[in-house]
Amino acid sequence: MKHLMTQPSNRVGEPLRERRVEVAPGVALHVEVREGAPSAVPFVLVHGLASNVRLWDGVAERLHALGHAVIGLDQRGHGRSDAPDAGYDLDTAVADLLALIGVLGLRRPVLAGQSWGGNVVLELAWRRPDAVRGIACVDGGVIELADWFQSWDACVTALTPPKLDHLSLAKLEARLRTEVPDFTDRAIAAYLHCFRARADGTIEPRLRRDRHLSILRSLWEHRPSTLWGTLKTPALLLLADTGDEARTAAKRRAETAALATAARLRSTWFAPGHHDLHLQFPERVADVLAGAVRDGFFA
Fold this sequence. Notes:
This protein is of the alpha/beta class. It has helices spanning 57-65, 90-104, 116-127, 145-148, 152-159, 169-179, 185-192, 209-221, 245-261, 277-280, 282-294; strands at residues 17-24, 27-34, 43-46, 70-73, 110-114, 134-138, 195-197, 203-205, 235-240, 265-270. It has a single domain (17-294), classed as Rossmann fold. It is 38% helix and 17% strand. The strands form two sheets. The chain has an eight-stranded mixed β-sheet, with helices on both faces. Strands 7-8 form a two-stranded antiparallel sheet.
């Protein structure tokens, strides 16, 4: 077996700049910038809960090859960004992203967010339509956990991440290859980057468990269904039919309600599709995003 261990990706010779961007006093995010044509629409790629920027690599490369500037980031407490004691909630995630847009001087970018990141970019666009040209929610934006679970306790029981700190990176890699055999070396490496190795060889998640649950609570309290009717920003939904009939039915109900009320909304399904569509089908996801720019949807 070829062990990937801590190598984050297989990027060779890419025109990519890594930066530290301060978004709050004493809090800097790890940001990766691919410069594009001055006239092209820029994209900002926002990962999901307990994830990292590496999962967006394939999408970023494809969009960049099409001429777009692409900015990827690790949200606070994730990846290589700072992990302060506070700020693990939706409001802070939105504030961090707005600060990033301001510091980088981005002129009305398109924001693409996956899972929790989809809810983040939806909330930002609803609050600040002047700051963005459009949004794309990749198997997110329709996540309303209060509809999925009868109580917060039930939500926590179902979605608290498993404890993996008895594993090494090599053992975690072996487990991932068994559970998702169709994923490439690069995809596995992106997942491994959600963890770091301790001195004794065991792993720990980069996002600490209590902070994970704090974000989960804010996601539980979020009501995206109340936003679509007054959203002024063009939006895309990219949704995965994972084979889980109950979850897919819930997403279809949320999609139907959003399409009925949103002023400018398109929806595309990937069936079958993994929750991490951006990792599984990076070129297809990138082409949906770029196509919406080309045909004027994000005008």
